[in-house]
Amino acid sequence: MEKIKIKQPSKKLGVLIPGLGAIGTTVIAGIELIKKGYSKPIGSLTQMGTIRLGKRTENRVPLIKDTLPLSKIENLVFGGWDIFEDSLYDAAKNAQVLSNEHIEMVKEKLQEIKPMKAVFDRKYVRNLNGTHIKKGETKFDLAQQLMDDISNFKKSNSVDNVVMIWCASTEIYLKEEQVHKSLAEFEKGLKENHPAIAPSMIYAYAALKMGIPFINGAPNLTVDFPAMWELAKQNNVPLAGKDYKTGQTLMKTIIAPGLKARNIGINGWFSTNILGNRDGEVLDDPDSFKTKEVSKLGVLDYILQPERNPGLYKDLYHKVRINYYPPRGDNKEGWDNIDIFGWLGYPMQIKIDFLCKDSILAAPIVLDLILFMDLAKRAGLSGIQEWLSFYFKSPMHLPELYPEHDLFVQLAKLKNTLRYFMGETLITHLGMDYYENDKIVKDNHAKTQKN
Known about the structure:
With 451 residues, the protein is α/β, with parallel strands linked by helices. The chain has 16 helices and eleven strands. The strands form two sheets. Strands 3-2-1-4-5-6-11 form a seven-stranded parallel β-sheet, with helices on both faces.
């Protein structure tokens, strides 16, 4: 297979993050710790993952970072926006995700990074109230201010290439409206302050307008509509999203494919979460919770496909609850009860209690997405990057297709895309073994005939 042409990475890669709270500070502080050799990038496919190339007999299984022209984490330069003016050092201490020992190790670097004023409106995130906020007569004016911020960031940091990744809060639930149908209507809506245009959309518009890849880490509508796809195509920019696949949904996309593979039935799947931090506070608002709930509920339907397996999953009852519990901070607990049935319909149960740190699970996802989206841009890809579904609860997809939620199918698709970038043979798990075995059978048959 011919190797695809990919531009070499620039000396510096700018990373702009709307939302420098728990996730944003954990990502940046973590990368600075890794740069200094204090820790390892555990959980990151780009840094620690391997990829099989060619036949199994060739035993070629290099690190992904050694086979692709990815930007090096040493060359990442960070900036961003937040509704609070705290430096990253203070924000990291307030988030209480990382230990004070870790934060102090990179104190000087974190103190250097101070957020720019954010585009924010409490109508869309009711349980937060920051003061470090931009003012403008129209949403179009705010978008222009963001583009000025981006230009200044690039100039002051001497960077040519930039990626923007949303690490801010979940907004209220919004449905696609007429204003989202085309770029012309959307830009008109910006100038008229249309209520269906949320702050996250203003950030995405500013990024795409300037040819910058945009990644949506929340379940917000943000870039999941035709106007944004049109702008991405017009400026040849890749898009990815939405909603980082971390705690409870990660478990679902691991376990549900296994149950389906073994044709084990499911009567019900009850999920509840307790969490604190800013994310929990935001999701305590019913309209913000609905945005997250829609993202979480769709996973099982697409994996189990009840319309194709009615005897096993047609009557499945799926319930999701999220409860704000401040004492937990970033230490989220996801509890699942799964009522299953097997041979002759006999009932069984699975219980899962996943105690995790949400930002610790999200940080390597953010790093991988930054590096892969920069790679996609340099490879000339644009529009929705379905091969990155592996990282999202509610993966973006083309309107005529359904999203893929099976974690293992997602991983196979991601790695085959990487093989395509490298000019390596795609792995189907049928072809190689089948043809190798077929050759052995034919050789043996020929020997038999000769004798």
